[in-house]
Structures are given as structure tokens and as C-alpha cells.
Amino acid sequence: MILVTGGAGFIGGNFVLDWLRCNDEPVINLDALTYAGNLESLASIKDDPRHIFVHGDICDRALVDRLLAEHKPRAIVHFAAESHVDRSIHGPGDFVRTNVEGTFTLLEAARAYWTTLEGAAKEAFRFHHVSTDEVYGSLGPNDPAFTETDTYEPNSPYSASKAASDHLVRAWHHTYGLPVTTSNCSNNYGPYHFPEKLIPLMITNALAGKPLPVYGDGQQIRDWLYVTDHCSAIRTILEKGQVGEVYNVGGWNEKPNIEIVHVLCTLLDELKPDVAGSYSRLITYVTDRPGHDRRYAIDARKIERDLGWRPAETFETGIRKTVEWYLANQEWVANVQSGAYRQWLETNYEAR
Questions:
Q1: pTM, whole model, 2 decimals?
Q2: What is the pLDDT at residue 28?
Q3: CA atoms within 13 A of residue 333's CA, in its CB half-sphere
Q4: Domains delineated in the chain
């Protein structure tokens, strides 16, 4: 059994679904169900006995201790985080609490639990921490991609809080011997993505005939990783990763934001044409956000060299799958936009 934190969020939820597709090992899913936690994303496994959902906060040490003592997981996979840069600019306190204090609480609980284990169980235990490429700061147009040994230079409250959590994980390994691994990923995209991030926002706005807001000149470059590829990378790290190591996980897909928007418009023109004309007519340039990093790029050669992992999806295959998913799941999108998804806990879990 494994314990997943933040398993009702975008990446964590996809990981839980992917995990249960790939093997029969049960999952304890601990999620506070903040605005981005959505149990509707896990509707397909709501009756699966391998999925044990717990509504709770990673900062609740007593709860985490109880879950570890009761279920005795062989690994913790830590996704739970506040992750939206714009929200961190307007309200950084939540990011410090969840990303820094929450990670500290989990590490301390994991350390206490790990010390009670013996023999093979103690040797096999892992704490995997899921982080971001944003901790490395911003790259110039000709700079080499981020490697695992690059200096941390976070530029937003979000990335600073994730950098702090990375440092805590490293310290708990080097000071206490806790068997940890860390992954720093590039921008994820795919199904069940809360529609405030670039790709789902553009899809949902386009279908609604609303403006497609592009920050600044739209030339901010990101490396794009299809979410199920990220899930497979984490499974690989859990299986074969070396204790104490950091692995950068990227999609080898550097694209400027404006190119992403045009690709989405072209796919929507093909798959759901609008009588009013191409969706590209809705592109609207807006004032850039403060401190907007210009370019991220991940050098993912280490995980390929050491663990044999490479992404299965190209950007072309992954983005088509993503658009097709949103077109086929408009009820999910509508419930997210209306807030109805927040009722899912009460209607589907309170009586269980």
C-alpha cells in the first residue's frame, strides 16, 4: 500500500488513476479538497476497494500519524501543494502553510513512522517528493536547460515555497537518513486540469466564445509534459530511483505560450468548428503578470540514462488527447466552473 497526498488534484488525481490501472496495490489518498481538489475526477474509482480516500490536511500531524500507523504504507508520494503562481502573488500565506509547513509535517511523521520499521520494510520504505522546475528560476533564450545540479533561484512566492520544501526533503535525508527521492517536473497538461491554467483555460474560454488572454507578448517558453508521462516517471522512480537523488522530468517540448494557444485554436477549429470563424479571433493580449519567468526548460537526460524513462507522448499526440478529453467531458468542466464539484464529497463520500 502507498499513501498519496493531494490525490484529488490534477497531477495527484491522474497519478492515482494511473497507479490503479497499472497494478493492484491499494492507495490511501489524503487530500484537503481545497478549490483545486476535485473528487469528480476520481468518479471512475469511487467504488474501488483499492482506493481509500481520506479528507484531511497534511498539516494535521495527528491524522498523518494515525494513517501511517493504521495502514503501514511502503511509500509516501507527496503531491499536495498550492501551485498557481497568480494565486501565490495575491495570497502567499497559503503557499507557505501548505508547501512548507505541510511538507515539514509529513517529513516528521514519515521519520517517526520509518524508525518503527524493521528489516526489509525499513529498507524498502520511500518518501517521494514531487516538485517543479520553477525552483530553478528563469532561463535566457540561449541558456542550457535546467539540470538537477542547477542553483535554485525561485522568483515567485509559489516557486519559493516549493524550493523551501525541496530543501527540507534534502535535509531530512542527509540529517536523519530518511530514504527520500525528489522529482522536479516541467509544465503538465492533460485531463482533469483545473481551468485556471493556460491550456484548459484556453479550451474552456474558446468553447464559450470568451477572450483568450495571453500574457505580455506570449513568448514565454515552457517545456510541456503530458500528465500520464509524469505519472509513469514517478512510478519508475519509486521502483528504481536511488535514495537521496533528484530527477528532472520533462517532455522535451519547449513551446512559447502563443504557439500553444494557436495549436489549441487549430485543433478546436478541426474538432468543433465555430460558425463565427476560427477560434484564433478570440486571442487577446493582456498585461503581463509581475515577475513572469521568461523560459523554463528541463534536461531530462539523467532519468533516461539512470532509470530508462522517456515520455511516451509527443506534444502533438498529447495535446490532441487533451482537447478531445475536454470536448468529451463538458459536464466535468461545467461543474468545476459552477462550483458544483465541491458537493461531490458530501453526495458521494459522507455516507460511505
A1: 0.94
A2: 98
A3: 21
A4: 2-348 (3.40.50.720)
